[in-house]
Amino acid sequence: MADQKRDTKLLDELEKGPWPSFVKEIKNASKTSPVCDDLLGQLELSYEEKKGHWKHGGIVGVMGYGGGVIGRYSDVPEQFPQVAHFHTMRVNQPSGWFYTSGSLRTLCDIWERHGSGLTNMHGSTGDIVFLGTKTDELEPCFKELGEAGFDLGGSGSCMRTPSACAGMARCEWACYDTLKMCNDVTHQYQDELHRPPFPYKFKFKFSGCPNDCVASIARSDMSVIGTWKDEIQQDDAEVAAYAAAGMDIQNDVCANCPSKCMKWDGKKLSIDNHECVRCMHCINVMPKALRPGKERGATILIGAKAPIVQGALLASVLVPFVPADELMDTLKELVSRVWEFWDEYGKNRERIGELIQRVGMSNFLDAIGLDPIPQMVTAPRDNPYIFFKGEE
Amino acid sequence: MAVTHEALADEMFHMVSEYYGKKNLKAGDLTKAMIAKYGEAECTKDDCKAAIRILMDSGRCVYSYFGGSFITLPHKEGAAPD
């Protein structure tokens, strides 16, 4: 049993305030886990010395897989022997993060048997993150996870664990079945998920509508965002009801429309759907009155990333609209062309978005066999890398 | 006749051994080298993928991570405590 008297005066500061505190949770766990007690000790030392005490492991993993385990070692193992090894395991989350309480208990029980008991639900990629275990426990833990129906997620130069919003399971705005797409893509690319074949990481994220609840436009190399092609569905009686209830439709809806495609004359809301950019603002404000159109599908975008080696990038449109029932086939075809190009020309640790920046969007589109189209342009005269010939 | 996956795995293992300690090789480096040696008609990317899987599942090679992911020979982890 861990000693509760460990002096952690700097860490204690992180327990103050109304916010959840990881220190509080680690302290709770340390009542039954000596690993957590040493973790607190090492963290306190790091705050005292203003220096991290973790070393990155290079080759720890489970047999046959090149992803899913991130090696961590303490550089002060004599002081904190329980965290001499403190590897992280990434476990592939269910699409949309749906669990039964039974499956959560199973996961926690497995992790208490083989690791520190500390979890992060969920990591920024979306995986279930198991924090802190020893090398000898990796294979037994992996075996138990497999028996419980779970698998490891991606890390390193793998396709990373795909993630999706809750989609049609809980959200009426979903324009395609994000959960199915996420599940299908996970199964389709198992090899790429577990055996790193790429110059660097590659992420898929699936959002059911332009609200983009999984931030795919900013965080994924290939982003699939639900949209519609026809007109916003409008219920005039519900629009009137919102107005009667006191909503300032002119200021709260029309004035906030980025393309100014809406007009309100005090009785009737008119939408010029050709000018609509699918921002979702009006639909979010008046969910009973306005809905996405009936002809639904998704936009496929490419090249987003958070800042690591280079700065952050937002995704660019690759295919403006794919009908929902053609999405998987289109995505597979596109992905094979994109990966072929990246394999051939990508430098070590170069994300696909950075490669596109380096070679130019025009050359990239040419290589994957797509023609430039106006929807790829953020704003007129905004994309200097696409030149249309006179006859076009 | 196309080169067998086992033969490709042996060839890749030889290459990884030769470069061990000198240069980190990625899966793509091995694949390109095999295709250059045998030609695309005899050796496809899928063949190389299968060969790499044989290498990993047999334990002759392991994946390592140093910024990106590489294929190397099993060795004692440098960062691991004694």
β-strand number of chain A: 15
How much β-strand is present in the residues of chain A? 5-15%
**Number of helical elements of chain B:** 3
Give the helices and strands of chain B as they follow along the chain.
HHHEE
- Describe the biggest sheet of chain A? 5 strands, mixed
- How much helix is in the residues of chain A? 25-40%
Q: By CATH's scheme, which homologous superfamily of chain B applies?
A: Winged helix-like DNA-binding domain superfamily/Winged helix DNA-binding domain
Instruction: Report the C-alpha radius of gyration of chain A, rounded.
Output: 25 Å
Cα-to-Cα separation, first versus last residue of chain A: 75 Å
**Assigned CATH class of chain B:** Mainly Alpha
Mean pLDDT figure of chain B:
92
Indicate the low-confidence ranges of chain B by residue numbers.
none
Adjacency order of strands in the biggest sheet of chain B: 1-2
Describe the secondary structure blueprint for this structure.
The complex is a heterodimer of chains A (392) and B (82).
Chain A: H1 9-12, H2 22-30, H3 34-49, E1 54-56, E2 69-70, E3 72-74, E4 88-91, H4 101-114, E5 118-121, E6 128-131, H5 135-147, E7 163-164, H6 178-188, H7 190-194, E8 204-207, H8 216-219, E9 222-228, E10 233-234, H9 236-244, H10 249-252, E11 262-264, E12 269-271, H11 281-285, E13 290-291, E14 296-302, E15 316-323, H12 327-345, H13 352-359, H14 361-368
Parallel strand pairs in A: 7-8, 8-9
Antiparallel strand pairs in A: 1-3, 2-4, 4-6, 5-6, 9-14, 10-13, 11-12, 14-15
Helix pairs in contact in A: 2-3, 4-5
Chain B: H1 5-19, H2 27-38, H3 45-58, E1 62-66, E2 68-72
Antiparallel strand pairs in B: 1-2
Description:
The complex is a heterodimer of chains A (392) and B (82). Chain A has 392 residues and is of the alpha+beta class. Chain A has helices spanning 9-12, 22-30, 34-49, 101-114, 135-147, 178-188, 190-194, 216-219, 236-244, 249-252, 281-285, 327-345, 352-359, 361-368; strands at 54-56, 69-70, 72-74, 88-91, 118-121, 128-131, 163-164, 204-207, 222-228, 233-234, 262-264, 269-271, 290-291, 296-302, 316-323. Chain A has 14 helices and 15 strands. In chain A, strand 8 (204-207), helix 8 (216-219) and strand 9 form a beta-alpha-beta unit. Chain A is globular, with a radius of gyration of 25 Å. Chain A starts with 8 loop residues before the first helix and ends in a 24-residue tail after the last helix. Chain B has 82 residues and is α+β, with helices and mostly antiparallel strands. Chain B has a single domain (5-72), classed as Arc Repressor Mutant, subunit A (Orthogonal Bundle), CATH 1.10.10.10. In chain B, 50% of the residues lie in helices and 12% in strands. Chain B has three helices and two strands. Chain B has a two-stranded antiparallel sheet. In chain B, strand 1 and strand 2 form a beta hairpin. The termini of chain B are far apart.
